């Protein structure tokens, strides 16, 4: 029996009779739900519900809005393992990775609970003689979020907790590949006491996305996904007068210095490259090996990659790495590996032929290393979004930084070294928004902006942290002067 996948509009869970797209359990390759493909009518209903709920929610004191989030956070903790297993079932990542996904989402709710203090304004007395000036932050109105498949819990929670606690209402369109975790989480928010219409869920594809981008009552759009779609959403959304933040794809570089600690750097690169089967925009997809590190670190890295166990994740015995999201994406990753080999890359760790006897229909690709990759190769330019690590070799730090800075992307980059001088030079000169020093995945936590640069981000204000609060609010500045009775009153003087 398939799991239900309803819409949520104006406080009502609706099971529409619409054609659906299959939701798979990637570990076994079986359909577990059908996500309805909504259209303009569903978008209009959700936006109108959010617009109608906005005036009352805006006037709700920020501390009361935060109390809803406090109750929500408690419910998330109480239902933690249920959310983790739902996440793993529809995505294919390991239970440990799903726990990280849900935990990082809860951290965003914790940050949102403290937002009333960040909404405080500024006042300056006597900005001119007898004149005071104050600045406050007010909500925008109806906001929308369009989220990807790779973090079913965390990425939606990057968006709507901050938007809601700032006084906005929200329409969420989760990925049609992984809608079930998002639905479970919103049910908990409903249970926490969120008023009807303040948060709504619609499902669908491009028609729903374009409906949100062009709807006159939607004031802001948040998106995470591939760079081409991020660019499209940014261009269409801003053309229609909306505030837009779009996180795109990446090719993140991990530099391995000759003095790097072999075991710790190997562990860091393995986690960065193959965590979540490489399906994340912060994946360390390119290892740049400097000088003697090809003799010290690289052999250990190759050996460790060959030992990564792949298998189904929806059971107690856990593998090191799970499946890819769909059969189609699995074939795409395999094609890119083949292209890399045809263009001259060597393959010291080959995951193409991996067999999983207990789940023969799962969407598996084993951990793979493509060595001697050059800048001109397809795999060096395109985001693979799978368990594939490119290895490039250079002589020194200058060459490594120059190589990384040629990339059009700019999410993150890391260096493994014992040298403070090398780390400082790298941090100063690397052209990306999130930097790791002896950390494989330098993704920022909730209190800091998720800070992509270049073609990894389109917009001005990032998600998370203070920038998230700024994105979902607008400043109002009031300048005031008060007269004594009769002062400056021409009519009173004449009389």
Describe this structure in words.
This protein is α/β, with parallel strands linked by helices and 495 residues long. The chain has two domains: 7-248 and 464-479, Aldehyde Dehydrogenase, Chain A, domain 1 (3-Layer(aba) Sandwich), CATH 3.40.605.10; 253-437, Aldehyde Dehydrogenase, Chain A, domain 2 (3-Layer(aba) Sandwich). It is built from 18 helices and 20 strands. The strands form five sheets. A seven-stranded mixed sheet has the order 14-15-16-13-12-17-18, with helices on both faces. Strand 3 and strand 4 (30-36) form a beta hairpin. Helix 1 (40-59) packs across helix 8, helix 2 packs across helix 7 and helix 3 (80-91) runs antiparallel to helix 7 (179-191). The radius of gyration is 25 Å and the shape is globular. The N and C termini lie far apart (86 Å).
Task: Give the secondary structure arrangement, pairings included.
Elements: E1 7-9, E2 12-14, E3 20-25, E4 30-36, H1 40-59, H2 62-78, H3 80-91, H4 95-113, H5 115-118, E5 122-128, E6 131-139, E7 142-146, H6 154-165, E8 169-173, H7 179-191, E9 199-201, H8 206-214, E10 218-224, H9 227-239, E11 243-247, E12 253-256, H10 262-274, E13 286-290, H11 293-296, H12 298-306, H13 327-342, E14 346-349, E15 368-371, H14 378-381, E16 388-394, H15 397-405, E17 412-416, H16 420-429, E18 434-437, E19 457-459, H17 465-471, E20 473-481, H18 490-494
Parallel strand pairs: 7-8, 7-10, 8-9, 10-11, 12-13, 12-17, 13-16, 15-16, 17-18
Antiparallel strand pairs: 1-2, 3-4, 5-6, 6-20, 11-19, 14-15
Helix pairs in contact: 1-8, 2-4, 2-7, 3-4, 3-7, 4-6, 10-12
């Amino acid at each position: 029996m398939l799991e239900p996948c309803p819409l949520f509009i104006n406080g009502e869970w609706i099971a529409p009779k619409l054609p659906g797209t299959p939701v798979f359990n990637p570990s076994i390759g079986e359909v577990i739900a059908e996500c309805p493909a909504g259209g303009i009518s569903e978008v209009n209903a959700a936006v109108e519900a959010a617009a109608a709920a906005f005036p009352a929610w805006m006037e709700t004191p920020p501390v009361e809005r935060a109390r809803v989030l406090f109750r929500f956070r408690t419910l998330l903790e109480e239902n933690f393992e249920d959310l983790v297993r739902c996440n793993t079932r529809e995505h294919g990542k390991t239970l440990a990775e799903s726990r990280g996904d849900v935990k990082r989402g809860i951290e965003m709710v914790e940050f949102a609970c403290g937002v009333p203090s960040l909404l405080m304004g500024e006042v300056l007395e006597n900005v001119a003689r007898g004149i005071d000036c104050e600045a406050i932050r007010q909500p925008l109105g109806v906001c929308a979020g369009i989220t990807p498949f790779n973090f079913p819990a965390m990425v939606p929670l990057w968006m709507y907790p901050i938007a809601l606690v700032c006084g906005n209402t929200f329409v969420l369109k989760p990925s049609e590949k992984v809608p079930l975790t998002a639905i479970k989480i919103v049910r908990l928010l409903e249970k926490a006491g969120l008023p009807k219409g303040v948060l709504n869920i619609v499902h669908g594809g491009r028609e729903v996305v374009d409906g949100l981008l062009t709807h006159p009552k939607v004031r802001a759009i948040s998106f995470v996904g591939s760079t081409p779609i991020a660019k499209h959403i940014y261009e269409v959304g801003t053309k229609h007068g909306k505030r837009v933040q779009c996180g795109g794809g990446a090719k993140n570089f991990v530099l391995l210095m000759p003095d790097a600690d072999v075991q710790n750097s190997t562990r860091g690169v393995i986690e960065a490259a193959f965590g979540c089967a490489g399906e994340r925009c912060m994946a360390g997809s390119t290892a740049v090996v400097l000088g003697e590190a090809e003799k010290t670190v690289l052999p250990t890295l190759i050996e460790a990659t060959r030992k990564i166990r792949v298998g189904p994740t929806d059971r107690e015995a856990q593998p090191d790495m799970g499946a890819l999201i769909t059969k189609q994406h699995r074939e795409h990753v395999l094609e890119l590996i083949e292209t890399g080999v045809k263009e001259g890359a060597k393959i010291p760790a080959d995951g193409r032929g991996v067999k999983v006897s207990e789940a023969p229909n799962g969407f598996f690709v084993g951990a793979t290393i493509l060595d001697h990759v050059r800048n001109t190769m397809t795999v060096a330019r395109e985001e693979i979004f799978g368990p594939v690590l490119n290895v490039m070799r250079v002589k020194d730090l200058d060459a490594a930084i120059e190589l990384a800075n040629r990339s059009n992307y700019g999410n993150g980059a890391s260096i493994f070294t014992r040298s403070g001088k090398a780390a400082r030079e790298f941090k100063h000169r690397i052209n990306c928004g999130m930097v790791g020093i002896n950390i494989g995945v330098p993704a920022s936590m909730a209190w800091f902006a998720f800070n992509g640069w270049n073609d990894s981000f389109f917009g001005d204000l990032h998600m998370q942290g203070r920038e998230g609060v700024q994105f979902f609010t607008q400043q109002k500045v009031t300048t005031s002067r008060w007269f004594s009775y009769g002062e400056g009153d021409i009519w009173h003087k004449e009389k």
